[in-house]
Amino acid sequence: MKAEITMDFNVASTGEAQEMLKGLCEKLRADGVISAYHFAIQAETGTVTEKCILEEGKVIA
Fold first, then answer.
1. Contact yes or no for 52/10 (Cβ under 8 A)
2. pTM of the model
3. 43, 20 in Cβ contact below 8 A?
4. How many whole angstroms from its chain centre is CA 47?
5. Residue 31 domain-assigned?
6. Are 42 and 18 in contact (CB under 8 A)?
7. Number of structural domains found in the chain
8. Do the domain assignments include residue 40?
């Protein structure tokens, strides 16, 4: 079963939102609630996923 969720974050940076989502998803995966996850954050500078590496708020990898 798949689900799509839309959230509006009240955080200062894309990096904060990414870390928050990663933490939540990793906890759910560790608890056996989900088997996999993917997210895409729509930021002013572009799209940031769980695989992106950020430096100073910018995607570097």
1. no
2. 0.81
3. no
4. 10
5. yes
6. no
7. 1
8. yes
